[in-house]
Amino acid sequence: MDYRAICEQVCRTARKAGEFIAAQRETFSYDRVEEKGRHDLVSYVDKEAEKMIVADLQQLLPQAGFITEEGTVQQASGQRFRWIIDPLDGTTNFIHGLPPYCVSLALMEASEVVVGVVYEAFSTECYYTWKGAKSYLDGKEIQVSTIDKFENTLTAVGLSHSSKETIGELLRQMEILLHQTSGIRRIGSAAIDLCYVANGRVDGFFQKNLSPWDVAAGALIARHAGAVVTDFSGGEDYVFGREILVANPSVYPDYRAKLF
User: Fold this and answer.
1) DSSP code per residue over 31-66
2) CA dist., res. 135 & res. 59, Å (int)
3) Rounded Cα gap, residues 123 and 60, in angstroms
4) Looking at beta carbons, which pairs linking 37-40 to residues 24 or more positions away fall under 8 Å?
5) 184 — phi, psi (to 5°)?
6) Residue 37 neighbours by CB under 8 Å, 6+ apart
7) Count of alpha carbons within 13 Å of 32, Cβ hemisphere only?
8) What pTM did the predictor assign?
9) pLDDT, tens digit, for every residue of 97-156?
10) What CA–CA distance (Å, rounded) separates 99 from 32?
């Protein structure tokens, strides 16, 4: 399997979908927003972008199944290859005209993610990697930050609408970060959070209650850029385990010890 060639094609697909998203943002109206559930918004842009992506990827790898956020195609069951697709990660940002928002595409072979592409539609930045490769941003190799002291870290935090118990734990973590580090950022797209760790713009990121399409591509990009990527307990169940912690290797132990 030529993972690099597949990745190059996936980058083109992500860019095409991202250009569609950016064009739609110019005339987008809030009255075209739907609620999938409380605090869970979707628009025709998400759905049309997903259809466009699926059509391209079906031609690229006809034998592959799909795991998609918007469910515009029959979901994968039993295939060796599976595409994991978020056509518009950061939908709330998009709806309000607030970047970033992105296309996140990953290819999983058996239980291993082997290709990851994240295209940020507002900045037009394209992050990508494939099995056996480094991570890249628009052709330039990227690496995690070299910050080695927890007190100097800048952390991206994902906020999920969940139970009071989860909120209480999150507030405890926020207090530690506010008092002991350089600061916190709430970016609004888990895929971009992971890419920003990969590129050294932030030093760590964590979030609970995530779906595979939120993290599959970005986690691979972060890991190939030198980040440590785990679930909250330090294990490897972060694609389907609904929680993720990622940081540069120097400060990852502090994140684990202080926050979890």
Assistant:
1) GGEEEEETTEEEEHHHHHHHHHHHHHHHHH-TT-EE
2) 25
3) 26
4) 38/161, 39/161
5) -130, 145
6) none
7) 15
8) 0.94
9) 999 999 999 999 999 999 999 999 999 999 999 999 999 999 999 999 999 999 999 999
10) 19
